[in-house]
Amino acid sequence: MINSRAEVLQHEIKKSTKNDDIEQIVSNLINMKILADNLPKFTKIINAHIDTSLANIIATTSKNDPLFLAKLSRALQSDARGVGMIIIAEHEVLKGYETYLFNEETKRHDINYVLKHLDGDDLDVEELRHLYEYFETNYKKLIKRHMNENESSKTSLSNLIDEIKKLASTHGVNHTLSII
Question: Which of 54, 50, 51, 58 is nearest to 32 (CA)?
Fold first, then answer.
């Protein structure tokens, strides 16, 4: 009976995918996840139905709307009960979006935030700030220079990586480690 209910929800997701009805897809995914969470003996089976539904969504929508999965993830994220975020966290297909969310959150922290929350004994915060600013300035110059070069992209990328490593090892990482 429980498997049958999960199959019905999976079928509803498939129908909603054909109509690009994100709200209905989210509702059915959340209902399936609630079912899985409340029936621990069937969690594995129901999660398999969710995975199958997500794979079907990708197969059906990726050609017409490559951003559909991101839209779906965003809709799941906005679920007030938090079940949508659990789906994002627990199902491999949506892990990329979880990483994206983490990266977006960490971008909001500038060097001042990081230095303010840095713990340790005898840290020279001003020296770390100076080293960061030096590295960032030179890093941006290198990126700009290599993006304007007309070399083959593979050679240019290889040269860029080598120069960044050199910049980090001579003026950044090694010196910073001695400060810390």
Answer: 50
For residues 67 and 122, give the distance between their C-alpha atoms in angstroms, rounded to a whole number.
48
Token pair, residue 79, equals 């679920």
- pLDDT at residue 105 above 90? no
Residue 160 CA to residue 94 CA, distance in Å, equals 32
- Give the model's pLDDT for residue 180: 41
**Contact in structure between 115 and 129 (CB atoms under 8 Å):** yes
What tokens does 168 get? 């980090």
CA gap 56, 33 in Å, rounded: 17
Tell me the pTM. Answer: 0.58
Instruction: Flag whether pLDDT at 38 surpasses 80.
Output: yes
In angstroms, the CA 118 to CA 140 distance is 24
Question: What is the per-residue pLDDT across 148-159, written as a single tens digit (0 to 9) for each?
Answer: 765 556 667 778
Distance CA 98, CA 120 (A): 30
Give 161's contacts (C-beta < 8 A, 6+ positions apart).
Answer: none
Q: Three-state SS for 165?
A: helix
